[in-house]
């Protein structure tokens, strides 16, 4: 590989890391926006700042997708592998508002989380590029995504159950419910709405799926360290 090709490769990798980084930042901004709306009890469609944040973040994700498309060496393979990403980047709420399609406040609230899946993909890709060991990168990504899922679903549960469930008096009750549910210990807060029951099932299933991954990872790390110690203690033949 020539010097110019090496420089070109490094520049491409730096650009990809930068795009993933800004994708994560965009997701954080979106999370803050959703959180403020939730805690302030602000109707999303009535406040243009929330609407504008959602729209421009989706536009960034769309532009980001096409940049990656043009950077890819195999365009057909890229489309086959990442076509779902473009559907996660569409500003659905702006389209629905423009076409006057009506949704309930709960449905609008759920639709707002769609771009965050795109941000989650950017996080995993960024961690894989930064951390040398792929297993460690995936493990860290799983931890961050688990905390993110618990937080998002606790927000949803709070929105769905607030006013209908006497046990959900504030967000603290919702985060307690989420922590007990994801660890499959069970919570004393029982959902009463249909949407609340659905997210309870999703969160419990997430906990049962993700926690075994942690067990496998730690078992692998301990096994690797033990094998390394055994190799270092083995006397070398003269």
TrEMBL record:
Principal cellular location given in the protein's record:
membrane
Q: Mention any one GO cellular component term assigned to this protein in its UniProt record.
A: voltage-gated potassium channel complex
Q: Where in the cell is it found?
A: Membrane
Which key words tag this protein in UniProt? Ion channel, Ion transport, Membrane, Transmembrane, Transmembrane helix, Transport
Every Potassium channel domain range = 148-223
A Pfam family that the UniProt record links to this protein:
Ion_trans_2
User: What is this entry's stated membrane topology?
Assistant: Multi-pass membrane protein
Q: May I ask which residue range the UniProt record assigns to the signal sequence?
A: none
- One BP annotation, GO: action potential
Gene Ontology molecular functions: voltage-gated potassium channel activity
Instruction: Indicate the transmembrane segments per the record.
Output: 21-41, 53-71, 78-96, 108-131, 138-160, 175-195, 202-222
**Entry keyword annotation includes Nucleotidyltransferase:** no
Indicate what this protein is called per its UniProt record: Potassium channel subunit
């Amino acid at each position: 590989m020539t010097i110019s090709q090496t420089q070109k490769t490094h520049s491409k990798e730096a650009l990809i890391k930068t795009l993933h980084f800004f994708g994560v930042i965009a997701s954080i901004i979106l999370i803050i926006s959703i959180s403020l709306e939730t805690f302030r009890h602000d109707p999303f469609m009535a406040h243009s700042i929330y609407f504008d944040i959602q729209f421009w973040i989706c536009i960034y994700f769309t532009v980001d997708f096409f940049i990656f498309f043009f950077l890819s060496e195999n365009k057909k393979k890229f489309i086959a592998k990442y076509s779902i990403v473009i559907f996660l980047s569409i500003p659905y709420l702006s389209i629905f508002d423009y076409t006057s399609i009506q949704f309930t406040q709960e449905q609008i609230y759920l639709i707002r989380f769609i771009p965050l899946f795109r941000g989650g993909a950017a996080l995993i890709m960024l961690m894989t590029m930064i951390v040398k060991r792929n297993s460690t990168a995936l493990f860290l990504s799983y931890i961050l995504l688990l905390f993110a899922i618990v937080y998002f679903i606790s927000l949803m549960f709070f929105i769905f159950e607030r006013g209908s469930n006497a046990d959900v008096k504030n967000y603290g009750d919702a985060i307690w419910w989420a922590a007990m549910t994801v660890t499959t210990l069970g919570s004393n807060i029982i959902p009463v709405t249909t949407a609340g029951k659905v997210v309870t099932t999703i969160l419990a299933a997430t906990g049962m799926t993700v926690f075994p991954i942690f067990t496998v990872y730690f078992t692998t790390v301990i096994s690797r360290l033990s094998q390394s110690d055994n190799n270092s203690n083995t006397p070398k033949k003269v």
